[in-house]
Automatic annotation (TrEMBL):
Protein species of origin: Aestuariirhabdus litorea
Broadest EC class assigned to this enzyme: transferase
Keyword Transferase: yes
Binding site for S-adenosyl-L-methionine: 284, 313, 318, 334, 361, 382
GO process annotations (BP): rRNA base methylation
GO-annotated molecular function: 4 iron, 4 sulfur cluster binding; iron ion binding; RNA binding; rRNA (uridine-C5-)-methyltransferase activity
Gene designation: rlmD
Protein name stated in the entry: 23S rRNA (uracil(1939)-C(5))-methyltransferase RlmD
PROSITE patterns: SAM_MT_RNA_M5U, TRAM, TRMA_1, TRMA_2
Matches recorded under InterPro entries: 23S_rRNA_MeTrfase_RlmD (IPR001566), MeTrfase_TrmA_AS (IPR030390), MeTrfase_TrmA_CS (IPR030391), NA-bd_OB-fold (IPR012340), SAM-dependent_MTases_sf (IPR029063), TRAM_dom (IPR002792), U5_MeTrfase_fam (IPR010280)
């Protein structure tokens, strides 16, 4: 694979900020966000589309005080891990930036990135490194948001994702990471929007794949006329299970449903659960990997009858309800009243009476001690990218024997692992989860136990 030329879309006007000639460098390793790293002018150079061991020609795009950023234009000596990107929009579309890296190698590098962050920022390593939870490399996304933009000068309707580092929209002819049931809707949706009288009043779409089939949410800026509504219904009858509308009031309503029941849901089959959600609720985009994650989480946490389990950032009940199904007394905590209501309804639908849910601001000191004055046996937390630093002290004061941490950012996991180490918890098990193949996004699961255990 020597001598690989790589074509990338370049935003107009950027060339004025770039040197006339590319620089030739040897890629020494990968950063925590899976960019190649080299040295140039005595500074680290972080390189998009570059792999360890490669000799590359790089265009430097941004200069900072302590480091540089660039993009490989020509691969003079290619890594054995390099593959041809599958998507025709690669290099221009802002998603799926790792398609040039073999899928199994992506998982290996993600694992190394997590271990590196833990060692560098917390001096922590796991007692046991469990096998990664892998995913099918393509066709895994069960939801996506597409931007819709009408270019008035060019009189062109664009439906797709944003371009890399830009607000510009690239119109998609394909998207291999989408579930096939959603990818096949791309061209019909563009044709549908182009046929509407209010074609320039649609701002974005939400594509969703529920248990029963595909659904779409249309976000429109002006009320839709009767003719447009008829076109939407005809499209839904041919392609969808549900069609939702979100008008200028931001409220969402089900415009059409095939079975008269607008319920969206995803399964957790190992626990005989089906969790209902609404189009704008947070759910994991990789449904098979989510099932595998929850199953392993319950294996590691091992909740049982009589045990008190606290689930923080509980959302719809993704971990709470399986733990309750296994017999534990579960308390779920979430900052969103809407999500707590969804979790309560999911518990009722499943016939689960051993889970209760509360709306709390977890950044407030002491709220967990007030909620659980007698402590808890085990904790699950699935925080956002910012992590759970403000909550760690409160968690530890409850005295749980084990804490299962689901992370979507290796840097904040490392920081919080250091906080837990300082409070006499050790990292017993760790695994990386490939929730987002073809991207640099890294998810992992870490089990902390009291050091005496």
């Amino acid at each position: 694979m020597d001598g690989v030329n790589v074509k990338f879309y370049q935003q107009p006007g950027r060339s004025r900020q770039q040197p006339q000639k590319p620089v030739r460098v040897h890629v020494e390793g990968m950063t925590h966000d899976l960019r190649g790293i080299a040295r140039h002018e005595g500074k680290p150079l972080f390189i998009d589309n570059a792999l360890p061991g490669e000799q590359v020609s790089v265009r430097i795009e941004r200069r900072h005080g302590r480091y540089l950023e660039g993009r490989a234009l020509h691969i003079e000596e290619a890594s054995r891990e390099r593959v041809s990107p599958r998507c025709q929009h690669f290099g221009r579309c802002g998603g799926c930036s790792l398609q040039y890296l073999d899928s199994q190698a992506q998982l290996t590098h993600k694992e190394q990135a997590v271990l590196g962050q833990l060692e560098r920022f917390a001096a922590v390593q796991p007692d046991q490194l469990a096998p990664p939870l892998g995913s099918q490399p393509f066709g895994y996304r069960s939801r996506a948001r597409l931007a819709v933009y009408y270019h008035r000068k060019q009189k062109q309707l664009l439906v797709g994702f944003r371009e890399a580092r830009s607000r510009q929209v690239i119109s998609l002819a394909q998207c291999p990471v989408l579930a096939p049931e959603l990818e096949c809707l791309l061209q019909p949706l563009q044709q549908l929007i182009g046929s509407l009288k209010a074609f320039d009043q649609v701002s974005h779409l939400e594509l969703l794949l529920g248990e029963r089939g595909p659904a779409v949410l249309f976000r429109h800026l002006q009320p839709l006329c009767e003719e447009d509504q008829q076109r939407l219904q005809a499209f839904a009858e041919q392609h969808l299970q549900q069609l939702y509308l979100q008008g200028d009031s931001h409220s969402v309503h089900c415009f059409w449903s095939r079975e008269g029941n607008p319920r969206l849901s995803y399964p957790l089959s190992a626990f005989s659960l089906s969790l209902a959600y609404q189009p704008l609720d947070f759910t994991q985009v990789n449904r098979p990997l989510n099932e595998a994650m929850v199953t392993r989480a319950m294996e590691w946490l091992d909740p049982g009858p009589g045990e008190r389990v606290l689930d923080l950032f509980c959302g719809l009940g993704n971990f709470s309800l399986p733990a309750a199904r296994l017999g534990a007394e579960v308390v779920g905590v979430e900052g969103s009243a809407t999500m707590v209501q969804r979790a309560q309804l999911n518990a009722q639908s499943a016939g689960i009476e051993t889970a209760r849910f509360h709306v709390l601001d977890l950044t407030e000191e002491g709220v967990l001690r007030s909620l659980c004055p007698n402590g808890v046996d085990k904790v699950v937390l699935d925080p956002p990218r910012a992590g759970a630093a403000e909550t760690i002290s409160d968690i530890c004061q409850l005295g749980p024997a084990s804490i299962l941490y689901i992370s979507c950012d290796p840097a904040t996991l490392a920081r919080d692992a250091g906080l837990l180490r300082d409070r006499a918890y050790r990292l017993q098990r760790l695994c990386v989860m490939d929730m987002f193949p073809q991207t640099g996004h890294i998810e992992s699961m870490a089990l902390f136990v009291q050091s005496g255990n």
